[in-house]
Design brief:
This protein is mostly helical. About 80% of the residues lie in helices and about 0% in strands.
């Protein structure tokens, strides 16, 4: 972006210099025409880069929306970033680049946060055991679910329930 501008300014400067040079115009005409040609090429290139960035960000936007929708529908059964990539017909590597450039997170983190959001909702509204909730969210291992929950919230599901359920059930 910045170097495009520098390049373009320096071509303008050179055209200006040639125009104001002391040799007869007939000698300078060819060089000036070449510089104008070069200017056209550089401006076109710069514009195309801008358009590509705009295009890819709108494609990214659509794909991120599609990913969020898929995670919403499947987070209880599908926890794997690679599987979501497959559903979107892109490579896991491309999906991760997409997510990190758009949102600044990994795909795995996005899935984890969605799971934890639902876990909080269930913990808040129900009296289910941690094991039952863990199972409902598609985990075979309640201990793994608890570690994941603590990683994202700083509290174990039990601590979260103790802190927020109590408050909730006094109403």
């Amino acid at each position: 972006k910045k170097n495009d501008q520098v390049t373009i300014e320096s071509i303008f400067q050179e055209i200006y210099n040639e125009w104001h040079h002391s040799t007869p115009l007939s000698y300078r005409k060819q060089k000036i025409l070449s510089l104008i040609n070069l200017l056209y090429i550089e401006l076109s290139r710069s514009l195309e880069k801008d358009q590509n960035e705009a295009l890819s960000s709108s494609v990214y936007y659509r794909q991120i929306k599609a990913l969020e929708k898929l995670i919403d529908q499947h987070f209880k059964t599908v926890k794997s970033a690679a599987t979501y990539a497959e559903m979107l017909h892109i490579t896991p590597r491309h999906l991760n680049r997409l997510v990190s450039e758009s949102i600044g997170k990994t795909t795995t983190r996005l899935i984890g946060e969605r799971v934890v959001l639902e876990a909080k909702r269930i913990l808040f509204y129900s009296d289910d055991t941690i094991a039952r909730i863990s199972e409902e969210l598609g985990f075979n291992d309640p201990a793994y679910f608890s570690r994941l929950f603590k990683k994202y919230t700083g509290l174990s599901p039990y601590e979260f329930a103790k802190r927020y359920r109590a408050r909730n059930h006094h109403h």
